[in-house]
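Key result, reporting period 2: structure in, sequence out.
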């Protein structure tokens, strides 16, 4: 299982190529909308994939894996025969073994101050996002008393919101407010929704609260990618997108590790407390905003005790 997941991560590097393809085939003003379309496609898969996997899994647990392999093979065939090269031969960078390593691509992010700041911002917000994903089911169970069905419905709402936001809303918001203002406003909106969700105990608001969060994140992320793509030439778009994907990969390791470890620690450390919200909320605009919720008292259960005489030695206080 571990080897299969690792192999899937290696071949998942096609996301960098897809982003580079968008950067090469769009103008600077339309680039954020192009990145948004990739996010919208991801949202569609986020909705259809679990439904299809669950349906196929009722017949055979291996069938979803076979279906995923077949779709991946069909996608490779489509890319080989239908996708055209976006750059002319003279604009392509020469391939070398030196560039075929993650350190080489990360070095590109250190070349300018803007790319350094964007790389740090991407690292923090992706760590936050991955931490949320790893804790969402546990958090909603403690906060709202949800089961897997309710949590699945909320994730379906997230996927549908991504399709709308990155497929349509991005094309309106970024041209109107600009990329910098979209990043600032979007990440602040997401951070504010984290705080509200942390204090909220109404399950209905839990469903609705994920929508403004997706609006903020879904508009800010393509704007961040668009600004980064403008910092390098046409021949280095693939290297840049690979570096950004590497940063996201590091965040995918750090975010869940920090979130789940902290959540587990507080549950063990504070015996009579419920950790109502442990989502490290990082929001990077020009500076990073860190918001965290402290522990609050749980509701104590009232137990009716019948009056009868007992010895003092029989009483035990927990």
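The corresponding designed sequence is given below.
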């Amino acid at each position: 299982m571990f080897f299969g997941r690792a192999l899937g991560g290696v071949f998942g590097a096609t996301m960098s190529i897809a982003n580079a393809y968008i950067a090469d085939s769009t103008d600077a003003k339309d680039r954020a909308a192009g990145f948004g379309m990739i996010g919208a496609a991801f949202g569609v898969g986020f909705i259809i994939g679990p439904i299809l996997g669950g349906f196929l899994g009722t017949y055979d647990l291996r069938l979803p894996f076979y279906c995923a392999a077949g779709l991946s093979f069909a996608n490779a065939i489509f890319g080989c025969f239908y996708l055209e090269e976006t750059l002319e031969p003279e604009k392509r960078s020469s391939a070398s073994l030196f560039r075929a390593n993650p350190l080489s691509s990360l070095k590109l992010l250190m070349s300018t101050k803007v790319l350094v700041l964007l790389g740090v911002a991407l690292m923090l917000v992706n760590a936050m996002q991955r931490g949320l994903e790893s804790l969402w089911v546990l958090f909603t169970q403690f906060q709202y008393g949800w089961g897997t069905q309710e949590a699945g419905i909320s994730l379906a709402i997230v996927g549908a919101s991504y399709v709308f936001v990155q497929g349509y809303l991005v094309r309106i918001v970024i041209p109107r407010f600009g990329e910098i203002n979209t990043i600032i406003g979007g990440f602040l909106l997401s951070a504010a929704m984290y705080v509200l969700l942390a204090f909220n105990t109404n399950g209905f608001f839990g469903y609705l609260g994920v929508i403004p969060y997706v609006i903020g994140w879904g508009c800010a992320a393509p704007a961040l990618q668009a600004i980064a793509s403008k910092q390098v030439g046409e021949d280095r778009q693939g290297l840049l997108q690979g570096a950004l994907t590497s940063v996201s990969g590091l965040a995918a390791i750090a975010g869940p590790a920090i979130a789940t470890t902290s959540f587990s620690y507080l549950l063990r450390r504070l015996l009579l407390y419920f950790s109502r919200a442990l989502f490290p909320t990082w929001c990077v605009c020009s500076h990073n905003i860190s918001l965290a919720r402290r522990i609050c008292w749980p509701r104590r259960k009232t137990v009716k005790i019948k009056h009868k005489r007992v010895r003092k030695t029989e009483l035990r206080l927990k």
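The longest strand covers residues 281-284. The radius of gyration is 23 Å. This case is discussed further under Risks and Mitigation.
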